[in-house]
Design goal:
By secondary structure, this protein is of the alpha/beta class. It contains 8 helices and 9 strands. It has one domain: Rossmann fold (3-Layer(aba) Sandwich). Strand 5 and strand 6 form a beta hairpin. The longest helix has 18 residues.
């Protein structure tokens, strides 16, 4: 397991699918020198997703091979699909950046929190059920995908109270600004001022 050094921090965005986690994560990252780590998954890309940008889309076979090679820092199975974060990707991200962010489901988030404790800050980004449905429809998600995500909605919402910070995403620029302020305050508090 990779050991996170003193100045290195992991910021994890979690919450229901369709709540705008990735949008906010990307907006916030531009305000800081932040690197992202992308998950591997065995599910097929949605029509608007890019391989290597949203996920690394791999076959079941490739994923199992990677698991056998102990390449994953954490991996989970949801609705028959596998998701995993490759340890080497985290190592690489921390080579050039002290701040790394991920967008994960609660299971993956919880695993990393247990591994790294206070080196991990969790942002729970959510929207009410109706807004989530509207966002799914706006991006032309298939009805079966929308239903699949909604079947996990309440269970995912229950994770909100576990996270250090929670934001209802009614306006992405506004929320990304608020998240940035939280990170700014957190980094300032952790800055060691040496006085000569």
């Amino acid at each position: 397991m990779y050991t996170i050094k003193e100045k290195e921090k992991l910021f994890i965005y979690t919450g229901p699918d369709g709540s705008g986690r990735k949008t906010i994560a990307k907006m916030v990252a531009t305000a800081f020198d932040m690197e992202t780590v992308i998950s591997y998954t065995t599910r097929s890309p949605r029509h608007y997703e890019q391989n290597g940008e949203d996920y690394h889309f791999v076959t079941e076979e490739t994923f199992k091979q990677m698991q056998e090679n102990h390449e994953f820092l954490e991996s989970v199975e949801i609705d028959g699909y596998h998701y995993g974060i490759r340890e080497q990707d985290i190592v690489k991200a921390f080579e050039n950046h002290n701040l790394v962010y991920l967008t994960l489901n609660p299971e993956g988030t919880e695993k990393l929190k247990k591994m790294y404790g206070d080196k991990v800050m969790r942002f729970f980004i959510y929207a009410d059920r109706d807004t989530v449905i509207l966002r799914h429809k706006a991006r032309n998600d298939k009805e079966e995908d929308i239903q699949r995500h909604l079947s996990h909605y309440d269970e995912i919402m229950a994770y909100k109270k576990e996270c250090e910070h929670a934001f209802e995403n009614y306006d992405s620029p506004q929320i990304s600004y608020q998240v940035s302020e939280v990170i700014e305050a957190f980094l300032d508090r952790n800055r060691i001022v040496t006085d000569y």
